[in-house]
Structures are given as C-alpha cells and as structure tokens.
Amino acid sequence: MYSIGQLSKQTGVTVRTLDYYDEINLITPSSKTSGGHRLYDEDNVMKLQQVLALKYMGFSLEQIKMSLRDSANTWQQSINEQIEMVHQEKERLNMLEKALQGISYSIEFEGEMNWSIVFNIIQLFQKGPEHVFQPHDEHLSQEDIQKMMQFNNQMTEEDIEEWMSSIQAIQANIDIDPASTKARELAERWMTLADNIFDHDEELLGNMWQSMEQKESTDDKGIAFYPMDQKFIAFIKEVYIAHHEGE
User: Is residue 27 a contact partner of residue 48, using CB atoms and an 8 Å limit?
Assistant: First the structure.
C-alpha cells in the first residue's frame, strides 16, 4: 500500500493532482487508515499509469474516465479517433506554419508589418484558396487553383527562398531599361523558376499569366499573386516585348 505522498514520489504526480483525481472519481484510493489518510494499492498504481499514458496520447480527463469505464473493446476505436485528431492538428499546425512564413516574407518585402497583407494571408488559410482567387475566376478554374496549391505545398524552403529572391531582384531593378541585358536575365530567371515550380504545365502557366494581367488592369489589391504587384507584371511584359520585337 502507498500513502498519497509515497505515490506522488514514485510516479511524479503531484499530491494536488492526486487530490483532484480523487475528487472527480478518476483515481479513488483503495482504503484509508484509521486516521483518515488515503491508501493506494497496486491496482490504483496501474490505473494511474494508464491515465498518464492516455494523457500523453492527448486524451482529455473526461475521455479517459469514459474509456476506463467502458469495456476493452472500445480502446481501438478511441485510439483511432485520437489518431484522426492528431492528423487534424498536424494539418492545422502545417497551415499555421505556412501562414507565419508568408507573414515573415511580407515583412521582409514591405520593410514593416503591413496589417492588410497579414489579414489577407490569414484569410487564405482560414477560408481556403477559393476565397482568395475568387476575383480571378474568369481565367482560373477550380482545377487550376488546386494545382497551384498542390505545387505550392511541394515547394521546399530552398525553392521558396529562390523564388522570393528572383522577385526581390526584379523589384530592386524595376526601373531599369526593359531592353537591357540585365532586365532580360532577371525576367528569364523568374520565368524559368515559374516553369519549374509549376512542372512545365503550359496551360496552367498561361491561365495564371492571364489572371495576373487582369490583376494589373483591375488594380486588384488581393494577395493571390503577392508580392508580384502591378509594376512587377508590367516589367515582365515590357521585357518580353522589348526582346521579342521583330522575331
């Protein structure tokens, strides 16, 4: 038999927590001394170990109480439900990570916290890509949007850094002569990366470019193609025209 202090020392569970487990009838002492002190037997210890294991797996105390009351046949179902919850939480955390990365990149581009951009990035992950790309549905189908998000999710951190670097390089030289060699090199670098990122899908790339041109003409302020703004789109067009005239 163990006193509450001995059980606490052996398991690492605080006396206060053991008091609470007794209060909610989760771990009830097997007996008491003549002086009213609680005593725990080996069955109590085994049950406490089960509770600790289930807590580690993410079960709530209410779920643990129900599971311990029910027959052993419910354990597989309970574990499967917990696995599904873990998968959902992993997905949520992955989306949160991407949202935070997007916000970090926006600060790098803007040089400050642009709350309008931050809000739009959060909406992208809360409401889904369909909401963000809704102003562009004239040129982008649902299949196009799904492809874009799939390719985006496949990008490594190195891919993202290279992509953002190519955009930054153009923004830093946005006013140079479109007919210059440097302008052509900058535009070709960006176009090559876009071609690789979207797996040389010419139809998708064409639809995306038409949608980007729509962005330029409608003065759209969304983040569907952020941080490629109107000046960026105009630069690519002007470089293309300058180096393909007469061909």
Answer: yes
